[in-house]
Amino acid sequence: MLARARRFFRFLTTVAFSGTGGRCSFSGNVVTGTGGRCSFSGNVVTVFGCTGLLGKVLINRLAKEGHQIIIPSRQDPYYTRYLRVYGELGQVLILPFQLKDEESIRRAIRYSNVVVNLIGTRCETKNYSFEETHIEGARRIARIAKEMGVQRFIHMSAMNASRDTPPTLFNKPSQFLRTKGIGEEVVREEFPTATIVRPSMMYGGNYDVFINYFLALQRIPYRSVVYVYKKGEHTYKMPVWIGDVSKGVERTIVDQNAVGKTYEFVGPHCYKLSELIDYIYDRAHLTARFPHRKYHRLHLNYLYRYHCCLRWTA
């Protein structure tokens, strides 16, 4: 392990200054070992947004391929320490950073030749809105990566992301998809050779948002109704396993043909949302264990009417 650490830091001392005055990453052509977790692939990969659903699985796969991994995180070290065991001793490094602090971003990618941006949010907060996260944050990371001489930049977007997103049920476009689409454009402006990945709905892992969301509804006492748009009969999904997405992202790092391209990762089959919900409840054995609590899929209008009645009777 000590020999591995000495070898890695000896590589770091071979970096040169780029023409823009920033640190330039080394070529990444030096490969040592027979392959696997205890080897060094020659790539130092900085992964932003590694504490999310995809980040944990991606780090585990990158570590198995022998990549040196740098994890910038704004969380307390207590909540990120488990990420170290995904690799060998000294293979996974965790650095503090803030998305609005350019100096912390420069420290995170100073010695990297590959940068992966997984940062995204589905809920706005007072500190980070959709625009600040998907547009300004992506622009800042891509610009600094270009200035620092990073060779490969992979940006994670979303399926159907576009500046001209059509109106939804609420008669206005999805701000999540709209800002994701604009984020792709600004990344292309700052880093023209960036690889953009658009995954479909992902499932798998301990933090599966899709499956756990619908199952959590049945854990609420006296709750047997699932509200979805038009009962889920007019919504189609192509779910993709999170392990396949992480494998695809890892391949874009080593594949030179992926430079400057946009990939859409989808599953092999297309389902109605109603079919997926019925399958989830059937496999969870909720309908058999609680026959008196058989769930019903209702259109969202019923939910709106219910809230309107509560508002008028309050």
TrEMBL record:
Q: What are the GO MF terms of this UniProt record?
A: catalytic activity; protein-containing complex binding
A GO cellular component term found in this entry reads: mitochondrion
Family annotation (InterPro entries): ComplexI_NDUFA9_subunit, NAD(P)-bd_dom, NAD(P)-bd_dom_sf
Assembly, in brief, is:
Complex I is composed of 45 different subunits. This a component of the hydrophobic protein fraction. Interacts with BLOC1S1. Interacts with SLC2A4. Interacts with CLOCK. Interacts with RAB5IF.
Q: What Gene3D superfamilies does UniProt report for this protein, alphabetically?
A: NAD(P)-binding Rossmann-like Domain
Location of the NAD(P)-binding domain: 49-203
Q: Which family does it belong to?
A: Belongs to the complex I NDUFA9 subunit family.
Enumerate the CDD domains for this protein. NDUFA9_like_SDR_a
User: What is the recorded name of this protein?
Assistant: NADH dehydrogenase [ubiquinone] 1 alpha subcomplex subunit 9, mitochondrial
